[in-house]
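Q: Structure tokens for this one, please.
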Amino acid sequence: MAIPIERIDEYRWRIPPDAKPGMRVPAIILADDQLMEQIRHDQSLEQAANSATLPGIIKAAYAMPDIHQGYGLPIGAVVATDPESGVITPGGVGYDINCGVRLLRSDLTKTEVMPRLKDLVNALFSAVPTGVGSHGKVRLTKENAHDPLVKGARWAVERGLGEPEDLEAAEASGCITGADPDAVSHKANERGRDQLGTLGSGNHFLEVQVVERIYDEQAANVLGLFPDQVTVLIHSGSRGFGHQVCTDYLATMERALKKYGIQLPDRQLACTPVRSEEAQAYLGAMRAAANYAWANRQCMTHWAREVFQKVFKKSSRDLGLSVVYDVAHNIAKVEEHEVDGKQRRVVVHRKGATRAFPPGHPELPERYRSIGQPVLVPGDMGRASFVLVGTQGAMLETFGSTCHGAGRVLSRAAAIRAAKGRAIEREMEDKHGVYVRATGRDSVKEEMPEAYKNVQDVVTVCHNAGISKMVAKLKPIGCIKG
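A: Here is the predicted structure, written as tokens:
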């Protein structure tokens, strides 16, 4: 049966709380007509309605324009719960804990890079380990395995894999407090031991991009972005380590549902009260995985800089290779938000959604407080990615959150079928002007541009709805994938 949905305005839709038994609040979907037509094709609206049944949910369940079907909550979901009466659900964060994006700017222009592009991409492909089960250059021992879980990106910088200023340009300075390595299973530790500093597979990538368009000159100046500038975007997460943490705690919480008398429309939403032993252990392990992911992106940042230095025969400082920002888009955090006119501490689950704090927010680096938090939105490897900034509108409506990417429209299997008989890497170069290197042929087919919504449509809805502002459009010219 189709989920009943009402239109609020040009960019907002509402699933009323009486649409399904057990809904405690409405579900709000941000989309225009075209995106809503795509959204209706999978189970994501059903999942959005299901997420509104979570105990202690506050205000509404939110779905971003890039929403698509996921495990438990849809990907592109934002849910806030009360820390006293609410729950934590691992399905509200996802398997790739702190999957996120890091943007580096440079002083190089497209004209300077194009003659060396293939050399650059080939060298990046050699330097940054990619693919399923890829092994990193950093191997953790039993003695130091806990260090990156507690220190995050700072652990890598202390080992010479980055600059101290990199930490200033990251959400939470690349380290979330409250990590508990003792809450992590032996299996998760084993999976993570040799994957630090690896890109992985699926939709993860490292792209060389060019600033194609500036929408907001003032914000772009603050971010150090200018037309025809070459940038680097790194999209990766916590690898097998985070996946195992999620797997472990979904099982733990599913077993505990009866203990807490929690009834759910879908067991994939398995959850326990925030104050419960199970939820506190999950939060400790999730934070450890988030820190692992920040350390992971920091390592790859260092290796990307080394490659640029070799190819262009200048120091990374002379090349102006600095971190613009690093954002998480799969995470749960305790934050202060205004609810019904009062400031409240809430637990914000962002699953395929990006924090988008407004100008002046105390958690932002001082240099960005005049413009709002940078938001990095990767698209598919043929079209574009976007830089946005957070707004007060997001703070008041969506718990300081906006979209995270393009959102799939074809499953991986469907994309492989659609790519049958086609040379996708050649198409990428001839049709889109993007030189691609990939470990697995199937990964390029799975990630071809038509497998995704057009990210321009997604960010335009977020901009017009007032939950973030467009600053710059980045066009890929080179890409490495797993």
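A few notes: The mean pLDDT is 95. The chain has one domain: 6-90+100-481.
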